[in-house]
Write a structure and sequence with these properties.
It contains 1 helix and 15 strands. It is mainly β. Strands 10, 11, 13, 14 and 15 form a 5-stranded antiparallel β-sheet that branches. It has a 4-stranded antiparallel β-sheet with strand order 4-3-6-7, with no helix packed on it. Strands 1-2-5 form a 3-stranded antiparallel β-sheet, with no helix packed on it. About 3% of the residues have low confidence.
Length: 224
């Protein structure tokens, strides 16, 4: 009977040592918590800033973006700081963001989504160019001219196109930037065009405050 008790005590001691060993191997590592203090704000016509509070134990943060509030969020970048500036965005457009924290163990749950809308124009930015006129040149090219705007650094040329037989005009989201012109030049020639298309142009001016609102559109059909 004493032998049985001694054997039981030895087994119990080994079990206690084993449990203690397992506990000593657990260093408490875990994925970080979800970032707090999450804020999103537009800072220009083409950029949105995302901010959040630091998370203890996080190595870096992942930023996600979606075009709609409950749409699919795609990773657009990461940051070791507690902010991220999303650039190159279209003006007057809303984007939604989420952020997660990451360490060697894994990724946290994402924040709730928040959104912001890029500015229509930056305060202090130049007015839209006036006096636009357009010329359809031979050899499938079009030249656009405009009046100069004081204090600008450059002009940006936007273009949209539709079938030459279409009577409607393109929407503002149809225009894409195709080039720029220095402040000393108030014209732009667009080449390699199709005679089956009508081309629409808008011009915006840029100064140290940013890009101003674009001009009213002008259009023409190129000649052979």
């Amino acid at each position: 009977m004493k032998r049985d008790i001694g054997f039981f005590v030895k087994i119990l001691s080994l079990m206690i040592l084993f449990v203690f060993f397992l506990g000593s191997c657990d260093d408490g590592s875990q994925a970080p918590t979800t970032p707090h203090g999450f804020a999103v704000s537009a800072i220009s016509t083409s950029s949105i800033r995302v901010d959040w509070s630091p998370v203890s134990g996080a190595d870096y943060y992942i930023v996600y973006r979606s075009h709609s509030q409950f749409g699919t969020y795609t990773q657009i970048g990461n940051s070791t700081a507690t902010s991220y500036t999303d650039t190159g965005l279209p003006r007057s457009t809303t984007f939604y963001y989420q952020v997660s924290a990451v360490n060697s163990v894994g990724e946290s749950a994402r924040t709730a989504h928040r959104g912001a809308t890029t500015f229509t124009f930056n305060e202090g930015s130049p007015r839209a160019p006036l006096g636009l006129n357009i010329t359809a040149n031979p050899s499938n090219s079009i030249t656009v001219r405009w009046d100069s705007v004081p204090g600008v650094a450059e002009y940006i040329i936007y273009r949209a196109d539709m079938s030459s037989t279409t009577t409607s005009s393109p929407g503002s989201n149809s225009y894409m930037a195709i080039g720029s012109s220095p402040a000393s030049s108030t014209s732009y020639t667009d080449t390699g065009l199709l005679t089956s298309r009508r081309y629409y142009y808008r011009i915006s001016a840029v100064n140290s405050y940013g890009e101003g609102v674009p001009s009213s559109p002008v259009s023409a059909i190129p000649q052979n």
